[in-house]
């Protein structure tokens, strides 16, 4: 089966660069290729897409972008999220994804080639930069930024508990002493820090006379099932509807199941056919509870990421004054860290050094031409001056001769 995911084109809060979902049902029904997603990003940055784009691909671009080539944001926030198929399944009322233009995307095709003309005309900020060393103060700032809190452990550093509130009065408690919790928080913190660096760079670029286009791109692979399942106890107990007996119910059902089976086999074999449906029902209840518990854990981790993305996009909109859009690709299959779906390519253009050499050669040729013309002008002037002097001398000599003849 072909690998498919979903892509969300998130419009600006102040301007419209993307077609609205209600007026474009075709883009939702037809799947896009990664190359078409990359071409869309190139156009949003104000550049031409790849020349190899097919007519069908151009048609899909027209279904996504508003028909105004002079109204482009020239700034794109592009993120690849692996481990999630569709965020609307987890959070149907999400503020940014609920109003975004959604389309399925074929992940089995080639990479999303984003064509850029020159490194001097576009600023590329990577969100995949490693976090490096960080302090508990950074964790506290990040938790406060999300509207949560971080309570440090006085005995051991980096053993505190970070609590993040979600919608519907749900909370997520992350214990930094646990490896999976620590890794998940580190992933979110790295994304947060790289976004802050991108906004700082935008502040410097906005003061230049010729502001380049800007693309903020990267990937997030922190949503993984084997990591999220270790959040079971903390996340489940954070839910307001979760009781303590819920964690012991699967074990209790297992004990009852074993007891009923042993009793029927040892003491009342004739009751075994009657008890089989009851035992089977107990097994089904146990499986359903475990599945529900696992789904709840995964959804809480995903909702925490979506809440972070919502906060990030709001900050970007404020920093860029509404002149930025978001393109987020969701891939349900976790990708290796070395494999990404997006790639930036630069078109072949004359290098600045070659242009400088050409300009210098042209200036040398022009100077030689000016020198030749000035030399010829001076020579001509000298010749004319000599000829004039000779002519004046001849006229004066003729007058003197005439006067001498008349006198004699």
Automatic annotation (TrEMBL):
Gene Ontology, cellular component aspect: endomembrane system
Domain DUF7794 span(s) in chain numbering: 4-227, 281-331
InterPro entries assigned: DUF7794
Annotated keywords: Membrane, Transmembrane, Transmembrane helix
Transmembrane spans: 245-267, 376-398
Entry keyword annotation includes Transmembrane: yes
Pfam families xrefs: DUF7794
Protein name: DUF7794 domain-containing protein
């Amino acid at each position: 089966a072909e690998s498919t995911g979903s892509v969300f084109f998130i419009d600006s809060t102040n301007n419209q660069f993307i077609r609205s979902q209600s007026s474009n049902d075709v883009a939702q029904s037809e799947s896009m290729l990664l190359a078409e997603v990359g071409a869309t990003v190139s156009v949003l940055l104000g550049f031409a897409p790849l020349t190899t784009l097919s007519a069908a691909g151009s048609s899909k671009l027209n279904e996504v972008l508003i028909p105004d080539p002079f109204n482009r944001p020239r700034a794109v926030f592009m993120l690849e999220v692996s481990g999630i198929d569709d965020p609307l399944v987890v959070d149907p009322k999400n503020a940014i994804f609920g109003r975004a233009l959604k389309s399925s995307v074929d992940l089995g095709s080639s990479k999303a080639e984003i064509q850029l003309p020159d490194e001097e005309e576009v600023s590329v900020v990577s969100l995949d930069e490693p976090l490096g060393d960080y302090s508990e103060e950074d964790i506290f700032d990040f938790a406060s930024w999300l509207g949560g809190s971080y309570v440090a452990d006085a005995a051991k550093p980096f053993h505190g508990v970070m609590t993040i509130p979600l919608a519907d009065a749900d909370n997520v408690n992350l214990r930094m002493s646990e490896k999976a919790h620590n890794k998940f928080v580190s992933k979110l913190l790295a994304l947060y820090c790289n976004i802050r660096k991108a906004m700082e760079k935008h502040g410097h670029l906005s003061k230049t006379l010729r502001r380049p286009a800007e693309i903020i791109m990267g990937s997030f692979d922190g949503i993984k099932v084997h990591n999220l399942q270790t959040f079971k106890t903390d996340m489940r107990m954070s839910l307001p509807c979760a009781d303590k007996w819920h964690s012991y119910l699967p074990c209790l059902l297992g004990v009852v199941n074993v007891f009923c089976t042993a009793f029927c086999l040892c003491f009342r074999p004739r009751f075994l056919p009657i008890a089989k449906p009851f035992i089977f029902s107990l097994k089904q209840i146990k499986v359903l509870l475990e599945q529900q518990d696992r789904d709840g854990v995964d959804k809480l981790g995903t909702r925490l990421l979506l809440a972070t993305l919502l906060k990030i996009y709001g900050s970007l909109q404020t920093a860029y004054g509404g002149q930025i859009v978001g393109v987020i690709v969701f891939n349900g299959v976790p990708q290796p860290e070395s494999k990404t779906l997006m790639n930036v390519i630069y078109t072949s253009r004359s290098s600045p050094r070659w242009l400088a050499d050409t300009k210098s050669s042209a200036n040398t040729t022009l100077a030689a031409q000016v020198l030749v013309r000035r030399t010829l002008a001076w020579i001509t002037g000298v010749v004319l001056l000599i000829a004039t002097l000779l002519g004046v001398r001849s006229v004066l000599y003729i007058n003197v001769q005439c006067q001498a003849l008349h006198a004699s």
